Amino acid sequence: MVIITPKVLHLFPIFSFLLLLLLKFSLAATTYNVQSYGAKPDGKSDSTKPFLNAWAAACASGKPSTIYVPQGKYVLGTAQFWGHSCKNSITIRIDGTLVQPYDYHVTGHNAHWLSFERVNGVKIIGGTLDGQGAGLWSCKASGGNCPGGASTLGIYNSNNIVVSGLTSLNSQLFHVIVDGCNNVMIQGMKISASSNSPNTDGIHIQNSNGVTVLSSIIATGDDCISMGPGSSNVLIQSIFCGPGHGISIGSLGWNKQEPGVQNVTVKSVNFQGTQNGVRIKTWARPSNGFVKNVLFQDVTMGNVKNPIVIDQHYCPDHPNSCPNQASGVKISAVTFKQIRGRSASPVAISIGCSQNNPCRSITFQDISLTYGNQAARVACAYAGGSYHGFVQPRGCL
Ligand SMILES: *[C@@H]1O[C@H](CO)[C@@H](O)[C@H](O)[C@H]1NC(C)=O
């Protein structure tokens, strides 16, 4: 028993220091090294189970924890990381490369290669994901009987997610999908796939609120970034896109009942050699969907085939089965501001809105787009709004 006398009292600072030290260590993140669970950095052994076991251990931890992936190549088959029973936040720090099996039949029939479901407070820091998709792309190109392909990284129904400094190479299908999430930050991402790889979208966002994509470099065969139904409060900033199909909202309006897209800012983007720049696309079918409060600002177009596009008759692949109705998706309050550069085709601005639901409050401000040595042209239908500052080409609204 300690009797508090003035003599003992002067020891209190030391006691409280020791206590704080103890507290600090017990709160410090616990680290789970995947190699301790049997993962082999040899580029050959299947490390799926060791990764899932490291996840299970981190998930059961009573403290915030870190899963550490040291340098080396780890082959992983399809892996789902479930978070509904996790007790704390988990950081996955990757110094190595995760490789999808070379034989695309192993994972290519599943929707995803790696997916996170119902996680909260997960951070993925660093690392490379190598989808080894080239074999599947050529199978598809030769019209063979191929699996649909797995998207590399899917994040579903999750909150408070950070992905920082991750590289994704040669996905079989989409590189990253964010669906049903709140508060997601993706930064310093590098995505790379061949310009003729099919459906290898860089980052696809849908049914999600508060998604930020910053400082990323995307080269791929489809959209660099796409936003599907239910995307709201999205900020996309400081992006290099090319090759690829640009940054798009859509395609939207396939379904009759569909959540809208609102408050999207796309800022400081450099497109080089892409098929499109900034684009909104909807199917020509009845829908209660909408797009409102969108800002495309500070955009450079370097030889972009279709720099600015609103297409409410979107139907890319099947000309015989296009819906050919009026799109129900209502598009309003879309601003194109400070957009300059070179178009690779004569029509730099193409605005084709729905005859039943014309686009409203479209703003063009400070636009300068050229085609070769000539002024570029516009092609427009069913759009209303206003011009501000110097806008060339104009004649749309
Ligand atoms: C729009 O989205 C941004 C970026 O996520 C967010 O900071 C801002 O608060 C949102 N604005 C409104 C009006 O919700």
TrEMBL record:
Q: Signal sequence span per UniProt?
A: 1-28
Q: Any idea which UniProt keywords this protein has?
A: Cell wall, Cell wall biogenesis/degradation, Glycosidase, Hydrolase, Secreted, Signal
Query: Any idea which GO molecular function terms this record carries?
Result: polygalacturonase activity
Q: What is its main location?
A: secreted
Concerning InterPro entries, the annotation shows: Glyco_hydro_28, PbH1, Pectin_lyas_fold, Pectin_lyase_fold/virulence
* Compartments where located: Secreted, Cell wall
Q: Does the keyword Nucleotide-binding apply?
A: no
Q: Name the Gene Ontology biological process terms.
A: carbohydrate metabolic process; cell wall organization
UniProt cross-references to PROSITE patterns, sorted A to Z: POLYGALACTURONASE
**Entry-linked PANTHER family:** PTHR31375
Please state which protein family the record places this protein in. Answer: Belongs to the glycosyl hydrolase 28 family.
Q: What is this protein's name?
A: OLC1v1007907C1
- What organism does the UniProt record list as the source? Oldenlandia corymbosa var. corymbosa
Q: What is the lineage of its organism?
A: Eukaryota, Viridiplantae, Streptophyta, Embryophyta, Tracheophyta
